[in-house]
Amino acid sequence: MDQVKFTAMKDGDKEDYDFLTKHEIEHTKGTADRLLTALVALDEGLSGYQITRLGHSLQSATRAERDGADIDWVVSALLHDIGDIFAPYNHDEYAATILKPFVREQCTWVVEKHGDFQMVYYGEHVGANPEKRQQYAGHMYFDDCATFCERWDQSSFDPNYEHFPLEHFRDRVHDVFARQAYDPDVIKAGMRMPLVQG
Ligand SMILES: [Fe+2]
Ligand SMILES: [Fe+2]
Fold first, then answer.
1. Which of 42, 89, 152, 168 is least surrounded, with the fewest CB atoms within 10 Å of its CB?
2. Which residues form the domain of 53?
């Protein structure tokens, strides 16, 4: 069997769906490599800054690592703008959706909201509300998102900052996306790990 027998989903039988499940599991194993390839594609997008989007992503992840942040943070920092490729108007939600089954809830929330939190740095120049983040005041991850933006995101547009190459992060991206999706021990709902050690 190398393809299903049906032409409409409702006509498929157990053999068809067992076959597809096996295929989908194989496909899932390639997620990390597809994301790494997509990060390289980010290099071609969005000109006008002094560094490329890939450079920005690598700087963010490098800063996270140098702050002593854990693997969930480093991989989240690396991928936080991956949504720029296909979802320029909600790139934060797009990236968060990719990360959600595989990283701590804390990191997913921060990636999902980082666009709103970033407004404090430039909202006034583009006619947006700089205090958009205030809608989340009191949220348990509010300060984490503020720190993420201040230390890793808004600061990472510097052509003179020496960052690690993509290769440096490859194994960690593989490790994260090889986790069991939505495993409670991965999601760790409500747990806060520091962004900065020491
Ligand atoms: Fe962003
Ligand atoms: Fe960013």
1. 89
2. 14-178
- Give the number of domains in the chain: 1
Give the burial class of 18: count Cβ atoms within 10 A of its Cβ; 0-12 exposed, 13-18 middle, 19 or more buried: exposed
Span 40-59, average pLDDT: 87
Among all bound ligands, the one having the nearest atom to the CA of 119 is: 1
Report which bound ligand comes closest to the CA of 116.
1
Centre of ligand 1 to C-alpha 87, Å, is 11
CATH code, domain with 139? 1.10.3210.10
**Nearest ligand, CA of residue 88?**
1
User: Which residues neighbour ligand 2 (ion) by CB within 5 Å?
Assistant: 81, 153
Confidence of residue 198 (pLDDT cuts 50, 70, 90): confident
The confidence score (pLDDT) of residue 46 equals 65
